[in-house]
């Protein structure tokens, strides 16, 4: 009777946290991604130093946050393990709130650069949320739990650029940053009131430092392969982001007055198709194996990324971005599912945290190289590099024979 009561309480806490975190992740991801539609134009507004290019500063400001997300990922992961993941989530929400409010008052590209750096140091709510739910989810609900959180993040990515573009064109760039900061303040209050956590006590013998965690991960060929997949996907996505709005501006000069809205719509189209097709790839993965889905998704996403090189109109770009999103939908969930099924329970928090670092490295490489490549070879060249990363990664995984993941 007591066990049954404890089980019911645990299930209630799991459902409550899943609903709460699904809402928080949606709001937060929508806010963070909303700036994608207009950040280069905001950088232009605050002023680029004489003799320096907008593409260069756009890449620097995008990429610096990913550098510090990568560096701080394992650190915040250990903080969560020792002091609780709820505290870690709240810490991140406080930091994001402050940073976005301060961005509204930026007066130079140096201000924006520093604030994006600070954002990279303080963020980390998503891996903390994944770790919290991974620890408390029933074994037979783990896939549903992680899939729900991933779907929420994707849905936020759909809404973010679209809402951000519309708001930027109607109320101005600076007001959007204040709205994002306010939204995260609301998220913080929701988290404090509704998230519950039974902290897992870890003995001193079981505690691992950063180097032990890195050693564990890099000894596993399977985990290395999954991290490479996540890194390549992030490079491909973020290499175009610093210059994507400028590419749309180049394609359709007549849309200058509403360029932020148009950029937001095209960004959102990729996320919409990604959102719609994530369940499809999940069912295919159950039948064919997630490793097969991962290879196919990377390959075809790379092909459609390359096709963006030849577009001549925004309508053509919109169609190809939709197709690109369909195959992007199969990459990250497949990689996470393979990792979850092949990682011991006590190491899942570590693996999720380090996978976040892998994604951050990809984001940093992509954001930084995107602007530099565009300056040297033109805006269209970033799509060549984006597609090449994905195709080469798919071939690498296909030829990888040393370890077969459990699908």
* Beta-strand proportion: under 5%
Taking pLDDT < 50 over at least 5 consecutive residues as the criterion, the unreliable ranges are none
Shape: globular
Biggest sheet descriptor: none
Number of alpha- plus pi-helical segments: 17
Helicity level:
over 70%
**Secondary-structure element order, as H and E?**
HHHHHHHHHHHHHHHHH
Instruction: Report mean pLDDT, rounded to a whole number.
Output: 84
Structure summary, number of beta strands: 0
Assign the CATH superfamily. MFS general substrate transporter like domains
Distance separating the two termini: 36 Å
* Spatial extent as radius of gyration: 21 Å
The total domain count is 1
CATH topology: Growth Hormone, Chain: A
CATH C-level class: Mainly Alpha
Any idea what the CATH architecture is? Up-down Bundle
Walk me through what this model shows.
The chain has 407 residues and is an all-alpha fold. The protein has one domain: Growth Hormone, Chain: A, CATH 1.20.1250.20. It has helices spanning 2-33, 39-46, 54-83, 85-103, 109-122, 125-136, 142-171, 173-194, 210-219, 221-238, 241-251, 259-288, 290-307, 314-328, 332-341, 348-377, 381-399. α2 (39-46) packs across α3 (54-83) and α7 packs antiparallel against α12. The two termini are 36 Å apart. The mean pLDDT is 84.
């Amino acid at each position: 009777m007591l066990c049954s009561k404890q089980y019911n309480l645990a299930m209630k806490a799991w459902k409550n946290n899943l609903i709460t975190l699904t809402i928080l992740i949606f709001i937060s991801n929508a806010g963070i991604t909303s700036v994608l539609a207009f950040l280069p134009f905001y950088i232009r507004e605050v002023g680029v130093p004489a003799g320096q290019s907008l593409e260069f500063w756009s890449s620097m400001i995008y990429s610096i946050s990913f550098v510090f997300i990568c560096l701080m990922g394992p650190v915040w992961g250990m903080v969560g393990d020792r002091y609780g993941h709820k505290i870690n989530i709240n810490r991140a929400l406080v930091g994001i709130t402050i940073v976005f409010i301060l961005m509204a008052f930026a007066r130079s590209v140096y201000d924006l650069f520093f604030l994006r750096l600070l954002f990279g140091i303080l963020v980390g709510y998503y891996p903390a949320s994944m770790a919290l739910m991974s620890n408390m989810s029933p074994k037979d609900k783990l896939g549903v739990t992680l899939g729900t959180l991933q779907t929420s993040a994707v849905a936020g990515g759909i809404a973010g650029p679209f809402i951000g573009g519309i708001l930027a064109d109607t109320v101005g760039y600076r007001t959007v940053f204040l709205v994002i900061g306010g939204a995260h303040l609301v998220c913080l209050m929701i988290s404090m009131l509704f998230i519950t956590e039974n902290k897992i006590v870890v003995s001193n013998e079981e505690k691992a430092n950063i180097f032990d965690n890195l050693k564990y991960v890099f000894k596993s060929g399977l985990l290395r392969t999954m991290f490479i997949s996540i890194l390549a996907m992030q490079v491909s996505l973020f290499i175009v982001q610093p210059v994507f709005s400028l590419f749309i501006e180049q394609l359709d000069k007549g849309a200058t007055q509403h360029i932020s809205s148009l950029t937001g719509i095209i960004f959102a189209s990729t996320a919409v198709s990604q959102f719609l097709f994530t369940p499809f790839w999940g069912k295919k993965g159950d039948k064919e194996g997630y490793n097969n889905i991962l290879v196919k998704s990377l390959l075809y996403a790379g092909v459609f990324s390359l096709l963006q090189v030849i577009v001549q109109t925004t309508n053509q770009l919109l169609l190809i971005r939709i197709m690109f999103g369909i195959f992007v939908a199969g990459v990250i969930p497949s990689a996470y599912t393979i990792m979850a099924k092949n990682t011991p329970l006590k190491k899942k928090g570590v693996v999720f945290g380090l996978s976040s670092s892998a994604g951050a490295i990809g984001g940093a490489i992509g954001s930084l190289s995107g602007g530099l490549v565009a300056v040297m070879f033109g805006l269209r060249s970033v799509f060549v590099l984006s597609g090449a990363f994905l195709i080469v990664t798919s071939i690498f995984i296909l030829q990888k024979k040393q370890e077969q993941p459990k699908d």
